[in-house]
Amino acid sequence: KWNLPAAYPADNPHSENLALFAKDVETATSGKLQITVHPGAALFKAPEIKRAVASGQAQMGEVLISLHENEDPVFGIDVVPFLATSFADSMKLYKASKAAVEKKLDSQGIKLLFMVPWAPQGVYTKKELNTIEDMKGLKWRAYNVGTSRIAELVGAQPVTIQAAELPQALATGVVNAFMTSGSTGYDSKAWETMTHFYDTQAWIPKNITFVNKAAFDALDKPTQDAVLKAAAVAEERGWKLAEEKALWYLDQLKANKMQVLPPPTALKTGLEKIGEQLTTDWSKKAGADGEAVIAAYKK
What we know:
Layout: E1 2-5, H1 13-28, E2 35-38, H2 46-54, E3 60-64, H3 87-107, E4 110-117, E5 121-125, E6 139-142, H4 145-154, E7 157-160, H5 166-171, E8 177-181, H6 182-187, E9 196-198, E10 206-212, H7 213-217, H8 221-255, E11 259-261, H9 265-298
Parallel strand pairs: 1-2, 6-7, 6-8, 9-11
Antiparallel strand pairs: 3-10, 4-10, 5-8, 5-9
Helix pairs in contact: 1-8, 3-9
């Protein structure tokens, strides 16, 4: 009997995909391996999940990989703004960076099972944005290095808020602008406090599902194979679901009277400049390994 802590609500597509993965494993092993998914940060808070799995407090886990960019820049490659701005590019970036991610996780006693994207990131605000100057002074939700750096570069005030705490932060005015996917906007009922969503497709972050290496190694070969096969199926299903749901979420924002808009030209240009700056920053931090990943991706 294994535990799999996850950070998002039970009805979030990531959590639903994990539930199907657990079911596939149970079926394939005839109930020999039973995985209980604990959604909504019920077992461990998002930033604690990876450490819990590495130390064996839980056998598996799922987390937004960019939360751990401070440990190694390679964990943050998928949130370098405006580097990969479509699902096809995101998959290409994943393939280019996967070996480097696996190597780092392996050194931490963790085995990568699969990664699944979120919907592309856009900007939620209570006011119209025409240029990046309009973002100055906004109380901006930051949840990783990239969102903090964007705040710095546009002169907004970064406030660190995890997804589970976002609805309350919006309701109390702790933040009045943020960058996230249509799905997190939908989960947190952004329309109750926000009026505009700019579909900037800034980046497509990914959740990573992983297993404690010692726990995995202790399984017999047929069980290991069942886990790996279910993981491959979950990854494919998750990507397909993400693309379908991305459009559905934007429709829901519109249905709830939010203005869903492409970024105005001046705003887009300003954000792309920030993107170039942040790709350069990231490459410097990541060193030769990082540069090799970027070069492979751009080939």
